[in-house]
Write a structure and sequence with these properties.
Blueprint lengths: L2 H20 L10 E10 L6 H6 L15 H7 L8 H9 L8 H17 L6 E8 L4 E9 L5 E8 L3 H8 L14 H17 L10 E7 L5 E8 L3 E2 L5 E2 L5 E10 L13 E5 L2 E5 L7 H6 L11 H12 L4 E10 L5 E10 L3 E12 L2 E12 L8 E11 L13 E12 L9 H7 L1 E13 L3 E16 L3 E18 L1 H8 L1 H4 L2 H5 L4 E13 L9 E12 L1 H9 L11 E2 L2 E2 L3 E13 L4 E14 L41 H4 L4 E14 L2 E13 L22 E11 L4 E11 L17 H4 E7 L4
Parallel strand pairs: 1-3, 4-6, 9-11, 9-13
Antiparallel strand pairs: 2-3, 5-6, 7-8, 10-11, 12-13, 14-15, 15-16, 16-17, 17-18, 18-19, 19-20, 20-21, 21-22, 22-25, 23-24, 25-26, 26-27, 27-28, 28-29, 29-30, 30-31
Length: about 775
């Protein structure tokens, strides 16, 4: 490490050390800085220590990455005067010392005992111990002796309503059973579950307050007799118990409103139509066809009221891109046991335009791109969304041997997408269409790339279905995607130096600069256990993808005994087609360590095999390593395959691609201050080819060699998280470089060099 950099780091550490000494000047005489909070549990197994620790009314000063109390050090640097200049900045960014308050410790003990009692440990004991240190700081340890839990030995119920009695007697999903501890949390969950069950059966007026429990204990025993009471709906004048009414849906109205401010006489000034069993109210002509309303509503006149059907209707209507807001309201009809429903809908503007501009940076070459989009959200009055997009980009290209730097990279494109909020398949019933909750997508794209070395055009069409099961599982099925790649012009210099097979023997390059047809079908499955509330301590997601290309075309060509070209490939209309199979799997977990720190793990692999009509994968389908979302000690497309070492030529980015990918990363994320987050990470991975290619020596995957070819990097980063946008800065250092077999070049972690081993990344969004 250069001496000036070393001195700067040493100076910074010295300042932080002095700040650490001055922290205690802000601790009043006779008081103590709260250094740590811990929990010691003995006795029967209860909630984990982390739960009871979360009950503490005081937490120690914030530790970045659970190690460094930087905000406290920053506060110490502010001095005693905090009204002007630098001192005020340190006070605002820093964090004042947390002084241990024994009154709050007593309150925490009371909450711990209350929680234990609710869990059935009614004779539990709790206390706290102060562990003093040489300096005026203290650790608070909460000591818990759980004791014996009270256990439910007998269950009984008192349910005056015979209809509800019949429903609950057939209920097989009870959360309470004999032999379990008496846990108030479980009892409350059971009340919620029973309420939901009865409301699904039409008991609109039933709520959890109608259910109560009484626990009877015997002296000197931990056995409990638990009785559940369901309060009666009421009594008549003679004292006869009244049954809870079961509600059905009566009138059902769809209201196209101008806004969400509904008044009681709102409908009286609107026009309306009567269609089938429901009414449609509107100020102007209805924006949606009646069939669309029916297919996206799970409510029908005459059906038993069910809140699940209401929720499903909300979710289904939210898929209609035309609708901005939806509100479903019920009121009791003049007929007993009947609810009249109204579905209020506010629509978005049918048409909209948007303009976007962005900056680009590819290996140091800067440029700009812009796009203009037009959206029609109701093309055929069924909330079909048509999107037209025009895109243009320019990027300066520097240091391109044999070409003028005045010739930059130009890109033009047009894209058309048409989305239908339904499952468009012939001969499928409307009921199946409604339950599928699917979206059908059709697309067509054209993209032209104009470089000093070549021109390339891509024509694409696609047909896909998307559907989901709740918020956790989703599917995508690409029925057919056609990509026609055309290279109409290649400069003589580029062809001679890189593509001439006789001089360079570069088959991979040559294959990727020939006209090609890709006919892909694919399937993607995604699962996540994350919930909207984000209350899970451990969240994880799984993504699985399969795709293949060219199999049908190959089978037809072979059956027809079609001729082959000079490369031994079948062609369609004079164009060779790609044939391959590809599989990807990725897994991400997020463990919440505390309120400010999360530990994330990500792993993925991919393998793609060309065969039959192809000897190598199309470049667009190959894997690459390095960059902001890969092994961050390398720049994008600068790692691999295997132990292959790039030769620093401009075209080498094509040879640094492969057919197999392995990658994993562990990242500790910590909230620092304001909207700034930090990260410490370690990445490992590489790519490989599935066959030996002369132009990629050392790149082929081998079970006996791949472990030695895993690249490793480490680093740190900052994130500006604005909620709707995340801007990320990551700096990665090489730790193990598989391009070298030994020495300090292979293990730069022993002797890091910023110029040789450091890579800086500016990106939008998190890496995973």
């Amino acid at each position: 490490m250069p001496r000036p950099k070393f001195l700067k780091i040493l100076s910074l550490l010295s300042v932080m050390l002095m700040a650490s000494c001055s922290v205690y000047r802000y601790v009043p005489e006779g008081e103590y800085l709260l250094d740590d909070v811990s929990v010691q549990i003995s006795g029967h197994q209860v909630e984990g220590a982390s739960y009871y620790k979360s009950l503490s009314y005081q937490s120690p000063n914030t530790r970045w990455f659970r190690l460094f109390r930087i905000p406290l050090r920053a506060y110490a640097l502010s001095g005693h005067r905090a009204d002007t200049g630098r001192r005020s900045i340190f006070r605002n960014v820093g964090e004042a010392p947390v002084i241990c308050d024994t009154t709050l410790c007593d309150a925490t003990v009371a909450d711990i005992l209350r929680s234990l009692s609710n869990s059935g440990y009614m004779k539990a004991q709790a206390s706290y111990t102060l562990k003093h240190h040489r300096r005026p700081k203290v650790e608070v340890q909460y000591n818990i002796e759980s004791g014996e839990p009270y256990v439910i030995r007998n269950l009984a119920s008192v349910i005056p309503d015979p209809a509800i009695q019949d429903i609950l007697s057939e209920d097989n999903d009870k959360l309470i059973f004999e032999g379990m501890p008496l846990d108030a949390t479980v009892l409350n969950k059971e009340r919620t579950r029973i309420t939901s069950l009865l409301q699904q059966c039409g008991y609109y007026r039933f709520n959890k307050e109608c259910i109560s429990f009484r626990a009877d204990t015997l002296a000197g025993s931990y056995d409990v007799k638990l009785t559940m009471f369901v309060a009666p709906y009421g009594t008549d004048q003679d004292g006869t118990v009244l049954s809870y009414p079961q509600y059905t849906i009566g009138n059902l109205d769809y209201v196209f409103a101008d806004n969400m401010n509904f008044s009681s006489d709102y409908l009286s000034v609107m026009k309306h139509l009567t269609l089938n069993d429901y009414n449609v109210f509107f100020s102007e002509a209805p924006n949606l066809r009646s069939k669309v309303l029916e297919s996206h509503s799970y409510l029908r006149p005459g059906m038993v009221y069910n809140p699940d059907s209401v929720t499903t209707t909300y979710n289904s209507l939210s898929r209609l891109g035309l609708l901005k807001y939806t509100n479903i309201q019920f009121e009791e009809s003049s007929v007993p046991g009947v609810l009249d429903g109204r579905i209020f809908m506010v629509c978005k503007q049918k048409h909209s335009f948007s303009f976007e501009i962005e900056g680009t940076n590819t290996a140091g070459d800067v440029g700009a791109a812009s796009s203009l989009s037009f959206v029609d959200r109701n093309l055929f009055h069924g909330s079909e969304q048509l999107t037209l997009k025009l895109r243009g980009a320019y990027e300066a290209i520097s240091n391109l041997p044999g070409y003028s730097n005045e010739n930059g990279y130009k890109e033009y494109g047009v894209e058309v997408n048409l989305d239908f909020p339904e499952f468009l398949v012939p001969f499928v019933s409307s009921d199946v269409q409604r339950k599928s909750q699917a979206t059908s997508q059709f697309s067509a794209k054209f993209n032209s790339q104009d470089r000093p070395e070549f021109n390339k055009s891509v024509f694409s069409t696609g047909w896909s279905y998307l559907w989901s099961h709740g918020t956790q599982r989703s599917h995508r099925f690409d029925v057919l995607e056609l990509n026609y790649l055309v290279v109409p012009w290649i400069s003589p210099n580029f062809r001679t130096e890189y593509l001439d097979v006789i001089s360079s023997k570069n088959s991979i390059l040559k294959y990727n600069y020939e006209d090609l047809l890709i006919s892909k079908i694919g399937y993607t499955y995604y699962f996540s256990n994350a919930s909207f509330s984000g209350s899970r301590r451990l969240q994880y997601s799984l993504r699985l993808n399969f795709e293949s290309s060219g199999n049908a075309l190959y089978g037809i060509s072979k059956a027809l005994d079609a001729g082959r070209n000079s490369n031994g490939q079948y062609e369609v209309l004079g164009i060779a087609f790609a044939q391959y199979v590809k599989h990807d799997l990725s897994f991400t977990s997020n463990l919440k360590l505390d309120a400010r720190n999360n530990l994330l793990f990500h792993a993925e692999y991919g393998v793609a095999a060309p065969y039959a009509n192809s000897t190598s994968l199309p470049f667009e389908k190959r894997y690459f390593a390095g960059g902001a979302n890969s092994v961050r000690g390398w720049a994008v497309r600068e790692l691999g395959p295997g132990s292959y070492m790039g030769n620093d030529k401009v075209i080498d980015y094509i040879k640094q691609s492969g057919d197999i990918k392995l990658f994993s990363s562990i990242e500790l994320r910590s909230h620092l201050f304001w909207k700034i987050n930090g990260a410490l990470f370690v990445d490992a991975g590489n790519i490989w080819t599935i066959r030996e290619y002369e132009e990629q020596p050392g790149g082929c995957f081998g079970f006996d060699t791949f472990a030695k070819q895993i690249a490793v990097s480490y680093g740190a980063g900052l994130r500006l998280d604005l909620g709707f946008l995340v801007v990320r800065l990551d700096g990665g250092m090489k730790a193990v470089n598989p391009a070298y077999s030994s020495g300090e070049n292979r293990y730069p972690v022993k002797n890091p060099d910023m110029d040789r081993d450091f890579a800086f990344h500016l990106a939008v969004g998190y890496p995973f």
